[in-house]
Each structure stands twice: as C-alpha cells, then as structure tokens.
Amino acid sequence: MENPAPWRKSSFSGPGETNDCVEVAAAGGGIRIRESDTPADILTTTPGRLGTFIRAIKAGALDHLGR
C-alpha cells in the first residue's frame, strides 16, 4: 500500500493536538478522512465524491438529517 500524505486538519480547529477535528490526507487517487479523537476509524473516498458531498452540505441539501 502506498504511504498516504500527512494528515491535515482544518484551520478552524485551533492550534495544538488537543483540539478534536476532522483530518484529511491524500492516498493514491483517493482522499482519506478521519476524526482526530478516533484516528483508527478512516473513511476513504474519491475527490469527486467528496466535492459532491461538500456542495450538498453547502446547499443545505442534508439539513433535514440533523433534525
């Protein structure tokens, strides 16, 4: 397996290791996503599918799921 790029966290999470956040890393042609407080649980997707998901969130298409 190819070594993934280093994990990157959102600039909105603040400095230091104690701020839990979503982290992403490139791996081959995919994108790996994890929650920093549970780093062993990793989701893998493609850039296109992640882009579609982010656009849906920004458009409010998934707002009904939080209710």
Automatic annotation (TrEMBL):
Boundaries of every DUF397 domain copy: 5-58
Pfam families per record: DUF397
Top-level lineage group: Bacteria
Protein name according to UniProt: DUF397 domain-containing protein
Lineage start: Bacteria, Bacillati, Actinomycetota, Actinomycetes, Kitasatosporales
